[in-house]
Amino acid sequence: MPDHIKKxxxxxxxxxEHELSHELPAEIKKxxxxxxxxxxxxxxxAKQRQDFxxxxxxxxxxxxxxxxxxxxxxxxxxxxxxxxxVVVYDSTKEEEIVYRLVTSEESDVSKGLISTxxxxxxxxxxxxxxxxxxxxxxxxxxVMEILKLTTVxxxxxxxxxxxxxxxx
Length: 168
Prior knowledge:
Blueprint: H1 3-33, H2 41-68, E1 85-90, E2 95-102, E3 113-115, H3 119-124, E4 132-137, E5 140-150, H4 152-164
Parallel strand pairs: 2-3
Antiparallel strand pairs: 1-2, 1-5, 4-5
Helix pairs in contact: 1-2
């Protein structure tokens, strides 16, 4: 998992845990002191927030566990997968587009960073140069031919060669 994503998730977990253990109990205690809980809006809002924070914490912790299980050895060396940069010809738009397959947390379509779980990402995963992917997006069907593929392994090898002064 990329370090900046791990730090981002850990920071959010830390903030939510602080809110859950310090701020929300104080709010609930203050609301309870006001009396009748059946019509106490502050109490109900604090309890709703507490439920939301608990749910979000569970979600973030599950995501951290999922991301920690990503094993680079399981990512294909000859097909598109997590970390790959894929150059496609989108026949629907009649243009070449460069995509990088990333985690959902890193996704930014405007920068060409697409999640492996997005419709386009799912359509490209497992494809090789020359393959055609037909992807159904919210904006309609798109047909993309894989023109060039650089896997996470290719990038690591290129970075290692650059560090040693050798060419690949």
